[in-house]
Every structure is written in C-alpha cells, then in structure tokens.
Amino acid sequence: MLLHGPVVTVETDPLEIASQLVAAVLDHAAASGVVTIFARPQSLDRVWVRFGFIPVPEGTLPPDLAGRPGSGLYAWRGGTALWTLREHLRD
C-alpha cells in the first residue's frame, strides 16, 4: 500500500490531527491484511516515526507503486521498525 497524505489544514495542532488519521489508516490496513505500507514524507517525518515507519530507499517500492512523484520514502510493516529490506535487495 502507498499512502499519500494525510493533508491537514487546521489552525490548531495539525500534527495531532494527522497522527489520528494515520492511526485510523494503520488500523484499517492491518485489519485488511496489508503487510507493508509505504508513505511519502510530505513534512510528516515526526508522524511516520511515531508510528514505526522507517526511511527506506525508493528501490524498495514494488513495481506497481514505483515511478510516482515524490521525494523520500518511509515504510511500515506491522507497526515495528524491526524488519530488514533483505527480500527487496535480492533482485
């Protein structure tokens, strides 16, 4: 899954609102059987890290998700940053 966003424009505590949206997305994704979620930073580095996303190279994106605009990439796998990119680096 590739997550673009969330985009939040509120006057008070936009990072908290973004965090609540990301938490809901993670719950839904996990319940739907999603194993890995990729996300573009979009100035939300603190939010991604809070939820266990780790920075990963662009080359880790599956072919169906590659080639989309954006710089930087984070990945989440089951709510923990304790995983490797070994399976992606075999190719």
Characterization of the model:
This protein has one domain (2-89). With 91 residues, the protein is of the alpha+beta class. A four-stranded mixed sheet has the order 1-2-4-3, with no helix packed on it. It has helices at residues 14-31, 45-50, 86-89; strands spanning 2-3, 36-39, 54-55, 74-77. The protein is built from three helices and four strands.
Give descriptors for this structure:
13% strand; globular; 4-stranded mixed sheet; 3 helices; 91 residues; alpha+beta
Helices and strands in order:
Blueprint: E1 2-3, H1 14-31, E2 36-39, H2 45-50, E3 54-55, E4 74-77, H3 86-89
Parallel strand pairs: 1-2
Antiparallel strand pairs: 2-4, 3-4
Question: Quaternary status of these chains?
Answer: single chain
The overall average pLDDT, rounded, is: 78
Task: Report on the biggest sheet.
Answer: 4 strands, mixed
Per DSSP, the total helix count is 3
- Would you list the SSEs in sequence order as H and E? EHEHEEH
Shape designation:
globular
Helix content: 25-40%
